[in-house]
Amino acid sequence: MKRFLPAFFLIMIVLAIYPFVGNDDAPKKPITGLPWQIEKLPDGSTRVFGIELGKSTLADAVNSLGEDAEIAIMQDRDGNDSLEMYFGSYRAGLLSGKLVLLGEIDHDTLTAMRERAASREIMESTARKFVVNDSDRPLAYRARVKHIAFIPTVNLDEDIISKRFGDAAETVQTDADVRHFLYPALGLDIALSEKGREVLQYVAPADFAGFTAPLRP
To answer: Which residue, 72, 105, 109, 75, is CA-closest to 87?
Structure first.
């Protein structure tokens, strides 16, 4: 199991001791937007990072998280397209990482936007990235957020996952070095990697079974 970076221990200690930020003279403000702050709503949906899965739009995400994001259509090696908004530097309190929001949009609109892309790039994974042009941004912003991925800059391990998110309902080993901690009630899948970065993935709880089905044989 990977060992914690010292910086992560410091973050956890500070967050535990100082739940509020601000100087002595200013009103104290609670730290919000942390990856374990998943709000369960009365209708069964969830809100995390200020985004309500399946209901908030990419425009809502911009209003909540800021405009410093790239929006592009990603095409995998099988030719499947997805609309993604990427924040290369997301920060909540002392915790930071990369944040990716997947927008739900119909196939024809997505294809047309890809064909009008401002630029194209082949990624190392053989996926292709098509940066949405400025004139199509308002159209892309209407898409609802159906999936969020957060990649923290610090390494996690099983102990901190359990302390911050509680005991997983199920764990699934997908290969030699990746184990998934599943939280159906929260719509959360935490992929713990021995060699690479951890990935926290959020969907609406109603969509969780279908989202995690590919993890099982």
So the answer is: 72
Name the band, by pLDDT with cuts 50, 70 and 90, for residue 209: very high
d(CA 50, CA 99): 13
HSE-up (13 A, CA, CB side) for residue 16: 9
Name the nearest CA neighbour of 86 among 117, 120, 131: 131
Report how far residue 201's alpha carbon sits from residue 146's, in angstroms, rounded to the nearest whole number.
Answer: 11
pLDDT of residue 25: 56
**Which residues, at least 6 apart from 103, have a Cβ–Cβ distance to it below 8 Å?**
57, 58, 83, 84, 85, 140, 143, 144, 145, 146
Answer yes or no: is pLDDT of 6 > 90: no
Q: Contact at 8 Å (CB) between 207 and 187?
A: yes
The residue ranges of every structural domain in the chain are 6-208
pLDDT value of position 106: 94
Predicted pLDDT at 95: 84
Q: What is the mean pLDDT of residues 117-138?
A: 90
The mean of the pLDDT values for the chain is: 86
